[in-house]
Amino acid sequence: MSILRSKYYDHPDGEDAFGKIVATNKYALTAGLAWSTLDVLTLSKPQGYLPTIGRFAYNTGPLMGMATAFTLTTLAATNARGKDDKINYLIGGFAAGGVFGAWKRNHVAGLCAGLFLGIAGVLKKMSIEQGWEFFPKPLKHQYGGVNIASNDYTITAERPRNWTTEEKKEQA
């Protein structure tokens, strides 16, 4: 399997630490690069290449650290406790919140982020256990498009157009 195609739930919790770290850091890297681009273009507006790279590192590095802290702490809690349950995700969320608090140099922000991320982790674990989706895919509507004449916008569908053949049979 390719490293870039690894997903968090390819293996049970407590196994494949490297694959799980890669899976969570893909999302952290994407979010970090998006936020860094927004920061560089609109908020901080650094002058030169090195300050711009520094802003990207300042924003992306801690997000990847939070993802790694969550993954490794959840893995360690699963192996240490011997259980695969929601408490491990709560502990992992607080570990990620601790990294956030250290990044912002504010322990209250870290505690609040840990609580938020812990609850989000518990909800994600519940969605996996119970079979519902945390972020469901949006429904695709059939309205509009290039050939709008083929869409049926009525309440009931039109009857088939073979009624004329039976009418001809009755006349004959």
Report the total helices.
5
For the secondary structure, the number of strands is 0
Specify the overall morphology: extended
Rg calc? 26 Å
**What is the number of domains?**
1
Strand count, sense and barrel status of the largest sheet are: none
- Following the backbone from N to C, one meets helices and strands in this order, namely HHHHH
User: Low-confidence parts lasting 5 or more residues at pLDDT below 50?
Assistant: none
Estimate the strand proportion: under 5%
Description of the structure:
This protein has 172 residues and is mainly alpha-helical. It has one domain. It has helices at residues 17-43, 49-81, 86-104, 107-130, 163-171. Helix 1 (17-43) runs antiparallel to helix 2, helix 2 (49-81) packs antiparallel against helix 3 (86-104) and helix 3 (86-104) packs antiparallel against helix 4 (107-130). It is extended, with a radius of gyration of 26 Å.
Task: List strands and helices in order, with pairings.
Layout: H1 17-43, H2 49-81, H3 86-104, H4 107-130, H5 163-171
Helix pairs in contact: 1-2, 2-3, 3-4
